[in-house]
DNA sequence: AGCACGCCGACT
DNA sequence: GTCGGCGTGCTC
């Protein structure tokens, strides 16, 4: 007897055992898709994870319904990768499968109903709904539940269907269909062999002038154009129509055939050659190669505009020349047009894109191409790690420090940067992590020899790096040399920059107009009704918005508590900075770039255009502004409230501030080398600002590492965050306490921090508690993680706590 | 995750 | 008195 372990797209532990019947025995392989029944009447598409002969003892396995693939669709390396993810990040493999596959590759099971032909209907005893349904089945033999909604009220459907099933008048028919059908396009061709008799052919067409003309047209195009002839092109001018073509096809003079159309338009322009590498880049390239030779992956630490892309292109080229493929990971696809354009020019059709914003059809298209090895370079976000690569040779993780590689809100949680390294290893491929501001973890790994450290310290073409200047805002205020949140000094500098017809960027990392609307008389502030956060005031829409659940409310005119009209705003948002900027620089064209202003369609494109053309003179923005805006005319970057970057309560706050400041600085003086950065702060002697000014990245990382070591944070310990959520706070608190006590049985006490209320105690009506684990690195780590898993299992044994939602974030 | 079964409040 | 809320249990 043969059995198979099947991965199902459900958030359930482990895999499921099914029996492999005789008919599939010789065909079934690990990595193929199968159709299996599950539960009452559900059918799922699963993935074969293992084939074996151990009959289960505690239950009777069901049969595999059918085999969907003739060859494995998930490569072995991917299955290994899934397993690693599920073990390392403590999530179910089914969740990984769900995330990894475009939904149309998972067959859909929709419940369809049909008449039971063996049962007579006694119409008299039926109610109206039942009669409608049966009549519908007379007309159409199969009706789906969703179709029934058209003629039976929603809440009565289940009742009606159930009654008829009980009477055995109807049956359930599981109709399964594959959603994805490749779109086909018609092409024409003329068999060149018949051309020996060309004169004869033309003779035979003398009576059909149009057909003759069409034939000659097709022939001409075919002989001049060395690619398939799209059928539709011959009808575009209106001279010919389908019947003319039909005549030719019937006479066997022209053949019609179909090709799958790619839904993704690919670039067909010129293919550009690489520029020559600079000396510094050559050296870096040698070092990368050395790293690869030592069997190490590389951390490429290259200051902004140092030409990291250039090196990537070199390695990509080389990999492809060796017959292997490349995965190029980006944190977000939207803000990185420039890099894509560059690769597009060079690689044209061998390039593919993949990210979660594609339609399902498009995703499957890319899937197919990757599988068939038609795509040599795949550019994509973290979801592209799951494509069925056949012979991956290189993975590049650009902007490796970017938090978008590990979004907390998407399940399953994993860090694409770390996952990429593991995946590369499974494919025996090499990886390059690239950034101008590497994450502290990667930097540490590089310094410890786990990664090869390659530093590119100067801008390409020896353009000077931007200079930093720190403005003591406290002093400026005290000597009354300030307007709003701008010191007179900064204002002068920006004015100068405007006079030189150079562009300015102002960074302020807080959305909205004001953080809080506060009553001056009683101190009342408006909280979100769903979340435990103060609502942010947005002046442009004149409303209060919750940035966590999106809840909106009117801005109060009087204090709801004490009826005072003395309401004031506190905490400056980007909208207020924009307003002030416009007020101070009346003549200047000021634009804002944040999530709220970029929401409209093509807002980004429009802004991009305005900056490129020079129409926008000052761009005020949140962290968004630090990405992708590579324009030569920007020379000044101002951060009027730099302190705000440090107020975040997070052990990575300083690291993030450093990265953000450095990234946004990189926008200035890319060409002229005259970029200036003004950091305006109340704490001009804050070590971080001083270090940034010194421009000694090694020293900065030393500083970070020292703090991390002292306060026991990564990379010196492994962090696991356990998040518990429930609608009832008391129950949640008790549960969290209990989980903590279970953990205490197995883990040393100092490892466990909490439970405590999460920084945002309630989001969307769910209360949140958390337990933070600081686990030692090395051998003990795995042992402790096994204990953690055991504890979580013990916790879930308690029926009363089954309704508590638990999420674990490993290395968050 | 989905889905069925089972026990307590607001309606014909 | 029923309909229907969601708490609990199970799925190879």
Entry keywords:
812 residues, alpha/beta, GIY-YIG endonuclease, Arc Repressor Mutant, subunit A, 6 domains, 7-stranded parallel sheet, 24 helices, globular, DNA-binding, PriA_CRR, ATP hydrolysis activity
Description:
The chain has 6 domains: 2-107, 3-Layer(aba) Sandwich (GIY-YIG endonuclease); 109-177, Arc Repressor Mutant, subunit A; 184-260, no CATH class; 279-462, Rossmann fold (3-Layer(aba) Sandwich); 467-510 and 572-709, P-loop containing nucleotide triphosphate hydrolases (Rossmann fold, 3-Layer(aba) Sandwich), CATH 3.40.50; 718-810, 2-Layer Sandwich (Alpha-Beta Plaits). By secondary structure, it is of the alpha/beta class. The chain contains 24 helices and 36 strands. Helix content is 33%, strand content 24%. Helix 2 (76-88) packs across helix 3. It is globular and about 95 Å long. Strands 15-16-14-17-18-13-19 form a 7-stranded parallel sheet, with helices on both faces. A 6-stranded mixed sheet has the order 5-2-1-4-3-6. The chain has a 6-stranded parallel sheet with strand order 20-32-31-23-30-29, sandwiched between helices. The two termini are 44 Å apart. The structure holds a DNA duplex (12 and 12 nucleotides).
Could you outline the blueprint of secondary structure elements for this entry?
Blueprint lengths: L2 E5 L8 E4 L2 H4 L7 E6 L3 E11 L9 E2 L2 E2 L8 H13 L4 H8 L7 E8 L12 H12 L3 E2 H4 L5 H13 L3 E8 L6 E6 L8 H7 L4 H16 L4 E2 L11 H9 L4 E6 L18 H15 L3 E6 L5 H14 L3 E5 L7 H11 L3 E4 L5 H12 L5 E4 L11 E7 L17 H11 L3 E6 L4 H8 L3 E6 L10 E6 H6 L3 E2 L2 E2 H12 L3 E5 L6 E6 L16 E3 L4 E3 L6 E3 L12 E6 L1 H11 L5 E4 L9 H11 L4 E4 L12 E6 L13 H13 L10 E6 L5 H8 L2 H14 L6 E10 L2 H18 L5 E12 L2 E11 L2 H19 L7 E6 L2
Helix pairs in contact: 2-3, 2-14, 8-9, 23-24
The chain binds a DNA duplex (12 and 12 nucleotides) through strand 1, strand 2, strand 3 and helix 3.
InterPro entries: DEAD/DEAH_box_helicase_dom (IPR011545), Helicase_ATP-bd (IPR014001), Helicase_C-like (IPR001650), P-loop_NTPase (IPR027417), PriA (IPR005259), PriA_3primeBD (IPR041222), PriA_3primeBD_sf (IPR042115), PriA_C (IPR041236)
Keywords: ATP-binding, DNA replication, DNA-binding, Helicase, Hydrolase, Isomerase, Metal-binding, Nucleotide-binding, Primosome, Zinc
Catalytic activity: ATP + H2O = ADP + phosphate + H(+); Couples ATP hydrolysis with the unwinding of duplex DNA by translocating in the 3'-5' direction
């Amino acid at each position: 007897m043969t059995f198979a372990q099947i991965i199902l797209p459900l958030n359930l532990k482990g895999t499921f055992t099914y029996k492999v019947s005789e008919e599939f025995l010789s065909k079934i392989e690990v990595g193929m898709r199968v159709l299996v029944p599950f539960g009452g009447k559900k059918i799922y598409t699963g993935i074969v994870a293992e084939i074996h002969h151990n009959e289960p003892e505690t239950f009777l396995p069901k049969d595999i319904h059918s085999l969907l693939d003739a060859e494995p669709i998930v490569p072995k390396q991917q299955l290994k990768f899934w397993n690693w993810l599920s073990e390392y990040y403590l999530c179910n493999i089914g969740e990984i499968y769900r995330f990894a596959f475009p939904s149309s590759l998972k067959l859909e099971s929709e419940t369809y109903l049909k008449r039971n032909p063996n049962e007579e209907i006694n119409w008299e005893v039926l109610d109206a709904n039942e009669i409608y349904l049966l009549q519908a089945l007379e007309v159409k033999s199969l009706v789906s539940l969703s179709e029934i909604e058209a003629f039976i009220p929603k809440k009565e459907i289940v009742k009606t269907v159930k009654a008829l099933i009980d009477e055995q008048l109807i049956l359930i028919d599981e109709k399964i269909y594959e959603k994805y059908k490749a779109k086909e396009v018609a092409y024409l061709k003329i068999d060149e062999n018949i051309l020996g008799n060309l004169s004869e052919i033309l003779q035979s067409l003398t009576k059909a002038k149009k057909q003759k003309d069409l034939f000659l047209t097709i022939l001409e195009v075919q002989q001049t154009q060395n690619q398939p002839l799209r059928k539709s092109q011959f009808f575009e001018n209106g001279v010919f129509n389908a019947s003319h073509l039909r005549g030719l096809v019937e006479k066997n003079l022209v053949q019609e055939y179909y090709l799958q159309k790619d839904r993704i338009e690919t670039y067909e322009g010129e293919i550009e050659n690489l520029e020559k590498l600079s000396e510094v880049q050559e050296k870096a390239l040698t070092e990368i190669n050395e790293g690869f030779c030592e069997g190490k992956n590389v951390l490429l630490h290259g200051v902004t505009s140092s030409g990291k892309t250039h090196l990537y292109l070199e390695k990509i080229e080389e990999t492809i020349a060796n017959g292997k493929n490349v995965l190029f990971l980006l944190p977000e696809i939207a803000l990185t047009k420039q890099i894509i354009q560059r690769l597009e020019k060079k690689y044209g059709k061998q390039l593919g894109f993949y990210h979660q914003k594609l339609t399902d059809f498009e995703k499957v298209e890319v899937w197919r191409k990757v599988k068939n090895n038609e795509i040599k370079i795949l550019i994509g976000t973290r979801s592209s790690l799951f494509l069925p690569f056949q012979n991956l040779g290189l993975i590049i993780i650009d902007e490796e420090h970017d938090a978008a590689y590990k979004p907390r809100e998407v399940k399953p949680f994993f860090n694409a940067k770390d996952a990429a390294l593991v995946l590369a290893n499974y494919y025996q491929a090499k990886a390059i992590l690239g950034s101008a501001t590497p994450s502290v973890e990667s930097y540490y790994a590089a310094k410890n020899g786990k990664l090869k450290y390659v530093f590119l310290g100067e801008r390409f073409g020896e353009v000077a790096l931007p200079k930093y200047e720190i403005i003591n805002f406290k002093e400026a205020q005290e000597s009354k040399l300030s307007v709003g949140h701008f010191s007179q000094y900064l204002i002068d500098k920006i004015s100068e920059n405007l006079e030189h017809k150079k562009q300015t960027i102002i960074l302020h990392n807080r959305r909205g107009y004001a953080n809080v609307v506060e009553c001056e008389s009683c101190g009342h502030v408006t909280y979100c009704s769903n979340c435990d956060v103060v609502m942010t005031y947005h002046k442009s829409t004149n409303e209060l918005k919750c940035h966590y659940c999106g809840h909106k409310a009117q801005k109060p005119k009087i204090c709801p508590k004490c009826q005072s009209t003395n309401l004031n705003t506190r905490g400056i948002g980007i909208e207020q900075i924009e307003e002030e900027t416009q007020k101070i620089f009346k003549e200047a064209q000021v634009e804002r770039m944040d999530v709220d202003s970029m929401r409209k369609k093509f807002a980004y494109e429009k802004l991009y255009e305005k900056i490129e053309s020079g129409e926008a003179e000052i761009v005020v923005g949140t962290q968004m502004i630090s990405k992708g805006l590579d324009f030569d005319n920007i020379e000044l970057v101002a951060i009027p409230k730099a302190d705000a970057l440090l107020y975040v309560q997070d052990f990575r706050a300083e690291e993030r501030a450093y990265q953000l400041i450095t990234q946004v600085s990189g926008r200035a003086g890319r060409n002229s080398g005259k970029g200036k950065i003004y950091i305006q702060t109340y704490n001009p002697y804050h070590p971080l600002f001083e270090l940034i000014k010194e421009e000694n990245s090694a020293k900065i990382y030393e500083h970070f590492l020292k703090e991390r070591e002292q306060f026991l944070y990564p990379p010196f310990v492994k962090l696991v965050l356990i998040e518990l959520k429930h609608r009832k706070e008391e129950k949640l608190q008790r549960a969290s306490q209990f989980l903590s006590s279970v953990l205490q049985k197995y883990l040393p006490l100092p490892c466990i921090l909490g439970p405590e209320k999460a920084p945002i105690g309630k989001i969307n009506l769910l209360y949140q508690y958390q337990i933070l684990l600081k686990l030692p690195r090395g051998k003990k780590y795995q042992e402790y993680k096994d204990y953690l898993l055991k504890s979580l299992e013990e916790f879930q044994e308690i029926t009363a706590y089954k309704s508590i939602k638990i999420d674990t974030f490993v290395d968050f």
